[in-house]
Design brief:
The structure holds two protein chains of two kinds. Chain A is of the alpha/beta class. Chain A contains eleven helices and ten strands. An eight-stranded mixed β-sheet of chain A has the order 2-1-3-4-8-7-10-9, sandwiched between helices. Chain A has a two-stranded antiparallel ribbon with strand order 5-6. In chain A, helix 2 packs across helix 7 (184-196), helix 4 packs across helix 5 and helix 5 runs parallel beside helix 6. The termini of chain A are far apart. Chain B is of the alpha/beta class. Chain B has three domains: 6-205, Rossmann fold (3-Layer(aba) Sandwich), CATH 3.40.50.970; 217-281, no CATH class; 286-395, Rossmann fold, CATH 3.40.50.920. Chain B contains 15 helices and 15 strands. In chain B, the strands form three sheets. A seven-stranded mixed β-sheet of chain B has the order 3-2-4-5-7-6-13, with helices on both faces. Chain B has a five-stranded mixed β-sheet with strand order 10-12-11-14-15, with helices on both faces. Chain B has a two-stranded antiparallel ribbon with strand order 1-8. In chain B, helix 5 links the parallel strand 4 (91-96) and strand 5 (118-124). Chain B is globular. Classes of the chains: A alpha/beta, B alpha/beta. At the A-B interface, strand 2, helix 3, helix 5 and helix 11 of A face helix 1, helix 4, helix 5 and strand 9 of B. Strand 2 (71-74) of chain A pairs parallel with strand 9 (245-247) of chain B. Chain B: This is 2-oxoglutarate synthase subunit KorA. Chain B: Keywords: Oxidoreductase. Chain B: Residues 34-270 form the Pyruvate flavodoxin/ferredoxin oxidoreductase pyrimidine binding domain. Chain B: Its EC number is 1.2.7.3.
């Protein structure tokens, strides 16, 4: 059954067939993200041999690892970006992509996310934000909206969610954009831009988790969650003129930054070149 | 396919930069130069006393050799970056001390499970916790062995001097490459900061090993298989179009995760153990002094092996039949040799800068009729010849 579906799916050439079907729950936004990523690769005509995909732990870590047919490194919880840093230094000409969730990259891995942006290393991070720890059973995440219910905030969440894109834009990334799974075409365009930027790029995708988040917050159907995204999305240009009170509970979407800054591995190689020149070590 | 560090260019650079001869340097610097001679071209670390000079030396020297120094945001990120870099073909190293070693344990386990070659130098300092940050100790003997979770083998070496640290670091790289496994070097704060004469050899004197690469597509498709029967799979590096999948979860020979089949886990973890057990000749090493006719055997490791040798020499001058056994590879412990020696002696003394760690390993291999006694000192000051000699006299 699964094989029949996959045989008619045009992006199946990018998938590791022996790993299918995916472990994602019905209605999960992860499939949309995988689809958008595959389409971005396809539209850019990138050879998957020139890709290394790294992920951490959690539902979203599964999106491209093992399902995407490239070199894939599935790492420990929160550390995907640090692993990817080593890969990028070793393979500066390859596209190194991290796909993982909000709990993984922004909570336990928050430090690596911040510092990779500060260093501006040429890695593309696709951060799938579903406001919840899905795989562990629906616990409070650093992105859970204020007032929402989870298994570890059964009465209501009294913490304020981390605004990931805003934080990483401030930390120094070259490219930052946020979309929801209801904005698929914009998402594909942003992933394409992120892959082509020479520097740290983050694409945050607000994604639905009807099973762990939705059903505890009166949105147990995936479509309800997508409608919620559409209804509450505010373009970044419009958000600039809105007060914090007006923006409470809204999803600011669009491009936050797109700028050129010296990139880490390029600078590292430049430095090596200078040092070798200085000490007269280059071959004549 | 050339693994970085293998190029004749690297040998040219090493020759040009480091003239063979005697130098006056710190133990930490000796570790760093050992790494450079072994072909290490990627270092990711986070500064911590008393290991910092290793990072400083690598930051200064690596760019000259076209190598990469990365100062990461923490120790966890450091070992993570090393694993990533190792999968692109680099020989990689980090150095840390007590608290940093604790932080690295999770990804050390990841390196064991994914069979990633790397070298982790733990410059042991006094603990628990922050302890005496600048003082040496030998308290991480079991942390090296059992620090990370699960059933796992580990190889740990322990140099006894600065000169020894140079060669043992090279040996650590060779073992890591040969067995596709992380190797821990248990150094210590005392030797790390001791300056002494260290001979830098010519590159031709250094034997260097490189990891086994897949001979063909078939081998590349089984990054965790055992095509050669030695338990060590060839390593398909990233970036060569093999579409390798690497995960710390239980995986099949092709790398794909399977955490549900008991046999898959059993097969994988037993092979990882087997490749270490079966290849004892690759890593086992110990030193012996006067063990032929010894009645009193001193068993010591790392920094303490030096005053221990001094004490044994003095005891011999006094006519006491003392001998010394120094495991240089402390994990897996040279148990067989320990058992043989244990049968021939009356007393075994185990001096160490802790409250008794390696003595537990020694105890496993000696019979009850041998008097086994620890000579322990903590507080950051190494044991002296006098202190150990006093104990030898006490049982003579």
């Amino acid at each position: 059954m699964a094989n029949e579906i996959y045989s008619t799916y045009p992006m199946v050439k990018y998938l590791r067939k022996e790993a299918l079907p995916t472990a994602l729950c019905p209605g999960c936004g992860g499939g949309t993200v995988l689809n958008a990523f595959a389409n971005a690769i396809d539209q850019l005509k990138l050879d998957p041999k020139d890709l290394v995909v790294v992920s951490g732990i959690g539902c979203s870590a599964w999106i491209a690892s093992p399902y995407f047919l490239a070199d894939t490194l599935h790492t420990t919880h929160g550390r995907a970006i640090a692993f990817a840093t080593g890969v990028k230094v070793g393979l500066p000409d390859k596209k190194v992509v991290v796909i993982s969730g909000d709990g993984d990259l922004a909570s336990i891995g928050g430090n690596h996310l911040l510092h990779a942006a500060r260093r501006n290393i040429d890695i593309t991070v696709i951060l799938v934000n579903n406001f919840i720890y899905g795989m562990t059973g629906g616990q409070l995440a650093p992105t859970t909206p204020f007032g929402a219910r989870t298994t570890t905030s059964p009465y209501r969440n009294i913490e304020h969610p981390l605004q990931i894109s805003e934080t990483i834009a401030a930390a120094g990334a070259s490219y930052v954009a946020r979309w929801t799974t209801a904005h698929v075409y914009q998402l594909i365009e942003s992933i394409k831009k992120a892959l082509n930027v020479r520097g740290f790029s983050l694409v945050e995708v607000i994604s639905q988790c009807p099973v762990q988040y939705g059903r505890r917050n009166r949105m147990k159907e995936p479509a309800e969650m997508l409608r919620w995204f559409l209804k509450n999305s505010v373009p970044v240009s419009r958000a600039k003129n809105m007060s914090p009170e007006e923006l409470e509970g809204k999803f600011v979407i669009g491009e936050f930054v797109n700028r050129e800054r010296p990139e880490f591995v390029t600078e590292l190689n430049k430095l090596i070149d200078e040092v070798q020149g200085h000490f007269g070590l280059k071959e004549d | 396919m050339i693994i970085r560090g293998d190029e004749p260019e690297q040998l040219r650079l090493l020759r040009k930069l480091y003239k063979p001869g005697n130098y006056f340097m710190q133990g930490n610097e000796a570790v760093a130069y050992g790494a450079l001679f072994a072909g290490c071209r990627f270092y990711a670390g986070y500064p911590i006393t008393p290991s910092s000079e290793i990072a400083e030396t690598m930051a200064r020297e690596l760019p000259k050799l076209h190598g990469y120094y990365l100062q990461m945001e923490d120790e966890i990120g450091s070992i993570a970056a090393m694993v990533g870099a190792s999968w692109t073909g680099f020989k990689v190293m980090t150095a840390t001390a007590g608290p940093g070693f604790s932080l690295m344990q999770e990804n050390l386990g990841y390196a064991v499970m994914t069979e990633t070659p790397l070298v982790l130098v733990d410059v042991q300092r006094s603990g628990p916790s922050t302890g005496q940050a600048t003082k040496g100790a030998q308290g991480d003997f079991f942390q090296a062995r059992w620090g990370t979770h699960g059933d796992h083998p580990i190889v740990a070496l322990s140099p006894t001097s600065g000169q020894d640290a140079f060669w043992e670091t090279i040996r650590a790289f060779n073992i890591a490459e040969k067995l596709r496994t992380p190797v821990v070097v248990l150094f210590d704060g005392v030797l790390a900061h001791t300056r002494e004469q260290i001979r830098i050899p010519d590159v031709s004197e250094v034997e260097i090993t490189y990891r086994k690469l897949p001979a063909n597509e078939e081998e590349a498709k089984l990054p965790f298989g055992d095509p050669h029967g030695d338990g060590v799979p060839p390593m398909p590096l990233f970036g060569h179009g093999y579409f390798t999948h690497v995960t710390g979860s239980t995986h099949k020979e092709n790398g794909l995760r399977d955490v549900y089949t008991p046999e898959v886990h059993d097969r994988l973890v037993r092979r990882i153990h087997r490749k270490i057990e079966k290849n004892r000749e690759v890593y086992e090493r110990y030193e012996e002094h006067f063990t032929d006719d010894a009645e009193i055997l001193v068993v010591s490791w790392g920094v303490t092996a030096r005053p221990a040798l001094g004490a044994v020499l003095k005891a011999r001058e006094e006519g006491i039949k003392a001998g010394l056994f120094v495991p240089k590879t402390v994990h897996p412990f040279p148990g067989e040799r320990m058992r043989e020696l244990g049968k021939r002696v009356r007393v075994i003394l185990v001096p160490e800068m802790n409250l008794g760690q390696m003595i537990i390993e020694v105890e496993r291999y000696v019979n009850d009729d041998v008097l086994l006694k620890g000579v322990n000192k903590i507080g950051g000051v190494p044991l002296t010849v006098k202190e150990i000699l006093r104990e030898i006299r006490g049982v003579a």
